[in-house]
Amino acid sequence: MTVAVTPVPFDRAALRPRILHIGFGAFARAHPMVYLNQGLGVAGGDWGVVAARLNSGAEALSDLDAADGLYHVAEADGETMALRQIGVLCGTCHPARDGAEALPDLIASPELSLILLTITEKGYCTRGGALDMDHGAIQADLAGTKPPQTAIGVIVAGLERRRASGGEGLTILSCDNQPDNGALTRAAVLGFARARGGDLADWIEREVRFPSSMVDRIVPAMTDESRALISESLGHDDGNAILCEPFRQWVIEDNFVGQPPPFAEGGALLVPDVQPFEDMKLRLLNGAHTTLAWVGQLLGQETVSDCMGNAPLRRAIRQLMLREQAPTLHLPKDVDVTAYADDLLSRFGNTRLKHQLAQIATDSSQKMPQRLFSPIGANLQAGRPWPVSALAIAAWIAGLRHLEPIDDPRRDELRQAASGADPVAAIFGLPDLGPAELIENVAFTDRVRDVFNQIQESGIAHALDMIVTEPRA
Ligand code: CS2
């Protein structure tokens, strides 16, 4: 059955290349671009976007060019489906296709005011909150014998050019799931600029702003099934379309050079401090996701919505959110955390989204600190129990030992550590996996080891049954 499409609500002829989006994948299409599309419909303006990728994905960008930058976003759950056409793109850029100078030149362009980033946790090349100087790609970019490969290297090359041509500062806005993502981006960019020498870092400190933001929308990787659903609803194919849930939220620190694009008019919240929103989302939503990814896979489940059909697992997730994560938070004003958690459970139950647990399990070493380790640390300190978190960590270690494939930048060392006689000690003996005060705390490692042994001896379903205290719904 076809569904009516909401057309682009503004005049595309007015668009200029004012925003560069690095890491233009599924999430970018379905989240920040939707806010901008709607905001331009309300407020108008010339805020066009150049979509960029650095590594894979040159073809996907050329496909967007072939469609004149237009694509559809389908927002769906079991009952509803809405289709909008997104028209904010005014170009694409890929170094492999357009040459190594293209991105730094764009960053230097006086028209450009904002760089948006969705490069995933590992794209920042940080460790312990600072640029990772041992990172191979950072070392190569710093050596400067070849064009930069990392987002951080490309950004610094662009800022250097911008400054040299007398350009003004701009804003760099991270849309990745990390706490204080603005400060982290700033640390990475400044770390790189300082390591290069000269006084560019001082200019960046003065002229570039790095607001933090909390982003939320579940946007799974596209599948044949989601493509077919969109084609059927549209009445024709759109190879650039994306399927996501109806829910979206974006809370942005109000800290821009000049006027921000009309994100607020498109539904974003601009606030002085995003941290309460970030912590709540990272711990309740993403912490639950990572728990589902590992416990669910060991239980033989494939998707998040499948997991919601498993009664003990669903109850454990509610328990995690309300008894283990919520008590660690300074909640944003007016938030009812029980309603927030229950809304999350229904979002997870969205049967239109075939959100693969294996996709969420990707890069878990980069996700554990903010999603599970930090709240566990707070619970240990406060003397509160954390059984579901312990199950999640133990399931991760069991998964590293038993599941294939493992997709993680630290895969080899993790796999090796997980295969030994005492995997828990070996995993937490790896450098910089989490905060030292937690990893070195025997109350933490002993508890995780107990649960790990229980999974090994009696199976994950039994280990799960042992910890669920949340009443049946
Ligand atoms: C997920 C997120 O893959 C993952 O790690 O937890 O992408 C999640 O779907 C989004 O943060 C939802 O806003």
Helix content: 40-55%
Mean pLDDT: 97
CATH top level label of the largest domain:
Alpha Beta
Q: Total domains, how many?
A: 2
- Give me the CATH fold name of the largest domain: Rossmann fold
Over the alpha carbons, how many angstroms does the gyration radius reach? Answer: 22 Å
- What percent of residues are in strands? 5-15%
Question: Can you tell me the CATH superfamily of the largest domain?
Answer: NAD(P)-binding Rossmann-like Domain
Report strand order across the widest sheet.
Answer: 6-3-2-7-10
Overview of this structure, please?
The chain is an alpha/beta fold. The chain has 2 domains: 5-271, 3-Layer(aba) Sandwich (Rossmann fold); 275-467, N-(1-d-carboxylethyl)-l-norvaline Dehydrogenase, domain 2. The protein is 49% helix and 12% strand. The chain contains 22 helices and 14 strands. The protein has helices at 26-30, 32-43, 58-66, 95-98, 102-108, 136-143, 151-164, 181-196, 200-207, 224-234, 275-298, 304-308, 311-325, 337-348, 357-361, 364-382, 387-402, 411-418, 423-428, 436-439, 442-458, 460-467, and strands at residues 5-6, 16-22, 47-52, 71-76, 81-86, 89-93, 114-117, 126-127, 130-131, 171-174, 213-216, 242-244, 249-253, 269-271. The strands form 4 sheets. It has a 5-stranded parallel sheet, sandwiched between helices. A hairpin with a 4-residue loop joins strand 4 and strand 5 (81-86). Helix 8 runs antiparallel to helix 9, helix 11 crosses helix 16 (364-382) and helix 16 (364-382) packs antiparallel against helix 17 (387-402). The longest helix is centred in the middle third of the chain and has 24 residues, at 275-298. It starts with a strand and ends in a 6-residue tail after the last helix. The structure holds D-mannonic acid. D-mannonic acid binds at residues 177, 216-218, 285-286, 289, 359-360, 367.
